[in-house]
Specification:
It is built from one helix and 15 strands. The protein has one helix at about 1-30; strands at about 35-40, 50, 60, 65-70, 80-85, 95-100, 110-120, 120-130, 135-140, 140-145, 150-155, 160-165, 175-180, 190-195, 205-215.
Length: about 220
Protein backbone atom coordinates (compact mmCIF):
# COMPACT_ATOMS: atom_id res chain seq x y z
CA UNK A 1 0.00 0.00 0.00
CA UNK A 2 2.80 2.42 0.91
CA UNK A 3 4.62 1.61 -2.33
CA UNK A 4 1.54 2.45 -4.39
CA UNK A 5 1.08 5.75 -2.54
CA UNK A 6 4.69 6.78 -3.16
CA UNK A 7 4.34 5.94 -6.84
CA UNK A 8 1.23 8.12 -7.14
CA UNK A 9 2.99 11.01 -5.35
CA UNK A 10 5.95 10.74 -7.74
CA UNK A 11 3.67 10.82 -10.77
CA UNK A 12 1.94 13.93 -9.37
CA UNK A 13 5.11 15.84 -8.48
CA UNK A 14 7.02 15.11 -11.72
CA UNK A 15 4.82 17.35 -13.96
CA UNK A 16 5.12 20.18 -11.42
CA UNK A 17 8.90 19.97 -11.56
CA UNK A 18 8.77 20.06 -15.34
CA UNK A 19 6.57 23.17 -15.25
CA UNK A 20 9.02 24.85 -12.89
CA UNK A 21 11.88 24.17 -15.28
CA UNK A 22 9.92 25.70 -18.14
CA UNK A 23 9.20 28.86 -16.15
CA UNK A 24 12.89 29.25 -15.28
CA UNK A 25 13.82 28.89 -18.93
CA UNK A 26 11.33 31.57 -19.93
CA UNK A 27 12.75 33.89 -17.28
CA UNK A 28 16.29 33.28 -18.53
CA UNK A 29 15.21 34.08 -22.09
CA UNK A 30 13.73 37.37 -20.94
CA UNK A 31 16.92 38.34 -19.12
CA UNK A 32 18.97 37.36 -22.17
CA UNK A 33 17.27 40.14 -24.15
CA UNK A 34 18.76 42.79 -21.83
CA UNK A 35 21.95 44.39 -23.16
CA UNK A 36 22.17 47.00 -20.39
CA UNK A 37 19.89 48.07 -17.57
CA UNK A 38 20.44 51.02 -15.20
CA UNK A 39 18.55 50.69 -11.88
CA UNK A 40 19.82 54.07 -10.57
CA UNK A 41 20.65 52.66 -7.16
CA UNK A 42 23.21 54.58 -5.05
CA UNK A 43 25.76 54.90 -7.88
CA UNK A 44 25.69 54.76 -11.66
CA UNK A 45 26.76 51.53 -13.29
CA UNK A 46 29.99 51.42 -15.27
CA UNK A 47 30.03 52.88 -18.77
CA UNK A 48 28.48 56.30 -18.13
CA UNK A 49 30.40 59.55 -18.62
CA UNK A 50 29.58 63.19 -17.85
CA UNK A 51 30.02 66.20 -20.08
CA UNK A 52 30.25 69.47 -18.11
CA UNK A 53 29.31 67.78 -14.88
CA UNK A 54 27.85 69.96 -12.08
CA UNK A 55 27.78 67.54 -9.12
CA UNK A 56 25.51 69.72 -6.96
CA UNK A 57 22.81 69.60 -9.63
CA UNK A 58 22.28 65.86 -9.95
CA UNK A 59 21.39 63.12 -7.51
CA UNK A 60 20.34 59.48 -7.31
CA UNK A 61 17.35 58.80 -5.08
CA UNK A 62 14.55 56.24 -4.87
CA UNK A 63 15.78 54.21 -7.87
CA UNK A 64 15.94 57.29 -10.08
CA UNK A 65 18.37 59.86 -11.45
CA UNK A 66 17.27 63.45 -10.90
CA UNK A 67 18.77 66.35 -12.86
CA UNK A 68 18.24 70.01 -12.10
CA UNK A 69 16.81 71.80 -15.14
CA UNK A 70 19.17 74.74 -15.44
CA UNK A 71 18.40 77.84 -17.58
CA UNK A 72 20.92 76.84 -20.23
CA UNK A 73 20.58 76.04 -23.96
CA UNK A 74 21.67 72.77 -25.48
CA UNK A 75 25.13 73.94 -26.53
CA UNK A 76 25.87 75.06 -22.98
CA UNK A 77 23.91 72.50 -20.97
CA UNK A 78 25.60 70.88 -18.01
CA UNK A 79 25.24 67.39 -16.55
CA UNK A 80 25.03 65.71 -19.92
CA UNK A 81 25.18 62.00 -19.14
CA UNK A 82 26.04 59.59 -21.94
CA UNK A 83 27.13 56.07 -22.78
CA UNK A 84 28.05 54.14 -25.92
CA UNK A 85 25.24 52.30 -27.72
CA UNK A 86 25.64 48.86 -29.28
CA UNK A 87 27.60 49.02 -32.51
CA UNK A 88 25.94 48.86 -35.92
CA UNK A 89 27.35 45.34 -36.32
CA UNK A 90 25.64 44.24 -33.08
CA UNK A 91 22.27 44.45 -34.82
CA UNK A 92 19.00 46.15 -33.83
CA UNK A 93 18.37 47.37 -30.30
CA UNK A 94 15.79 49.26 -28.24
CA UNK A 95 16.43 52.17 -25.84
CA UNK A 96 13.78 52.91 -23.19
CA UNK A 97 13.53 55.44 -20.38
CA UNK A 98 10.78 56.81 -18.14
CA UNK A 99 10.88 60.55 -17.38
CA UNK A 100 8.82 62.74 -15.09
CA UNK A 101 9.03 66.45 -14.26
CA UNK A 102 8.94 67.01 -10.51
CA UNK A 103 7.68 70.56 -11.07
CA UNK A 104 5.46 71.75 -13.96
CA UNK A 105 7.18 73.07 -17.06
CA UNK A 106 7.03 76.87 -17.27
CA UNK A 107 9.62 77.92 -19.88
CA UNK A 108 9.57 78.01 -23.66
CA UNK A 109 11.51 75.02 -25.02
CA UNK A 110 12.03 73.53 -21.56
CA UNK A 111 12.83 69.90 -22.34
CA UNK A 112 14.23 66.60 -21.17
CA UNK A 113 14.67 63.22 -22.75
CA UNK A 114 16.94 61.14 -24.98
CA UNK A 115 19.61 62.60 -27.27
CA UNK A 116 21.80 60.94 -29.91
CA UNK A 117 25.28 62.42 -30.03
CA UNK A 118 28.51 61.89 -31.93
CA UNK A 119 31.29 62.92 -29.61
CA UNK A 120 30.07 66.19 -28.06
CA UNK A 121 27.85 67.08 -31.03
CA UNK A 122 24.07 66.66 -30.85
CA UNK A 123 22.61 64.83 -33.85
CA UNK A 124 19.04 63.93 -32.86
CA UNK A 125 16.72 64.22 -29.87
CA UNK A 126 13.48 62.76 -28.52
CA UNK A 127 12.12 64.82 -25.65
CA UNK A 128 9.21 65.99 -23.55
CA UNK A 129 9.16 69.70 -24.42
CA UNK A 130 7.17 72.86 -23.71
CA UNK A 131 6.36 74.72 -26.96
CA UNK A 132 4.17 77.81 -26.72
CA UNK A 133 2.76 76.68 -23.36
CA UNK A 134 1.75 73.27 -24.70
CA UNK A 135 3.49 70.06 -23.69
CA UNK A 136 4.59 67.69 -26.46
CA UNK A 137 6.84 64.79 -27.24
CA UNK A 138 9.12 66.21 -29.93
CA UNK A 139 9.94 65.62 -32.78
CA UNK A 140 6.59 64.37 -33.92
CA UNK A 141 4.91 67.10 -31.86
CA UNK A 142 2.46 64.77 -30.15
CA UNK A 143 0.51 66.53 -27.36
CA UNK A 144 0.86 65.30 -23.79
CA UNK A 145 -1.59 65.79 -20.94
CA UNK A 146 0.91 65.15 -18.16
CA UNK A 147 4.64 65.71 -17.61
CA UNK A 148 5.25 61.98 -17.28
CA UNK A 149 6.10 59.75 -20.21
CA UNK A 150 8.13 56.75 -21.32
CA UNK A 151 10.27 57.34 -24.41
CA UNK A 152 11.46 54.51 -26.61
CA UNK A 153 13.81 54.30 -29.58
CA UNK A 154 13.88 51.29 -31.89
CA UNK A 155 17.14 51.39 -33.82
CA UNK A 156 18.12 49.11 -36.71
CA UNK A 157 21.27 50.22 -38.52
CA UNK A 158 20.62 53.88 -39.28
CA UNK A 159 16.81 53.65 -39.04
CA UNK A 160 15.31 55.03 -35.85
CA UNK A 161 11.65 54.68 -34.85
CA UNK A 162 10.54 56.78 -31.85
CA UNK A 163 7.57 55.78 -29.69
CA UNK A 164 6.09 57.10 -26.46
CA UNK A 165 3.82 55.95 -23.64
CA UNK A 166 1.85 58.85 -22.11
CA UNK A 167 1.69 58.76 -18.32
CA UNK A 168 3.89 55.62 -18.36
CA UNK A 169 0.81 53.45 -18.89
CA UNK A 170 -1.03 51.82 -21.78
CA UNK A 171 0.23 51.21 -25.28
CA UNK A 172 3.23 52.82 -26.93
CA UNK A 173 2.27 55.31 -29.65
CA UNK A 174 4.27 56.32 -32.74
CA UNK A 175 6.03 59.70 -32.64
CA UNK A 176 8.36 59.84 -35.67
CA UNK A 177 10.84 57.94 -37.84
CA UNK A 178 14.27 59.25 -38.74
CA UNK A 179 17.53 58.22 -40.34
CA UNK A 180 20.47 58.53 -38.00
CA UNK A 181 23.56 60.28 -39.33
CA UNK A 182 26.34 58.01 -40.49
CA UNK A 183 27.00 55.61 -37.64
CA UNK A 184 30.42 55.96 -36.04
CA UNK A 185 31.08 53.31 -33.41
CA UNK A 186 33.90 55.33 -31.86
CA UNK A 187 31.81 58.51 -31.53
CA UNK A 188 28.14 57.45 -31.19
CA UNK A 189 26.56 58.22 -27.80
CA UNK A 190 23.14 57.82 -26.20
CA UNK A 191 22.61 60.75 -23.85
CA UNK A 192 20.31 61.94 -21.07
CA UNK A 193 19.98 65.74 -20.86
CA UNK A 194 17.66 68.60 -19.93
CA UNK A 195 17.64 72.24 -21.12
CA UNK A 196 15.97 75.62 -20.70
CA UNK A 197 14.91 75.33 -17.08
CA UNK A 198 13.59 78.32 -15.12
CA UNK A 199 16.07 80.87 -13.76
CA UNK A 200 14.06 81.95 -10.71
CA UNK A 201 12.82 78.62 -9.28
CA UNK A 202 14.14 75.07 -8.93
CA UNK A 203 12.90 72.47 -11.38
CA UNK A 204 14.05 68.85 -11.48
CA UNK A 205 13.53 66.05 -13.96
CA UNK A 206 13.37 62.42 -12.83
CA UNK A 207 14.72 59.55 -14.96
CA UNK A 208 13.94 55.89 -14.24
CA UNK A 209 14.18 52.44 -15.82
CA UNK A 210 16.80 53.13 -18.47
CA UNK A 211 17.46 50.04 -20.55
CA UNK A 212 19.01 48.88 -23.81
CA UNK A 213 17.51 45.61 -25.01
CA UNK A 214 17.27 43.38 -28.04
CA UNK A 215 14.00 43.66 -29.98
CA UNK A 216 11.31 41.11 -29.22
CA UNK A 217 11.28 38.21 -31.65
CA UNK A 218 8.30 38.23 -33.99
Amino acid sequence: MKKATLTLMFLFVLPLLACGATDDTASDNTEASVIFKEPFQKVLRDGWSWLREAPANWRITDDALELKMEPLPGDGARNILFRKPPTKADGPFVVTIEIKALQPYTQQFQQAGLYWMQGDELKLKFVMENIDDQLYVFPGKKPLETEHVVLRWRIDGTRLVAEYQPGATGEFLPAFEEQLPDRNDAQDRISIQCWHGPADTEAWIRYQKFSITKPESK
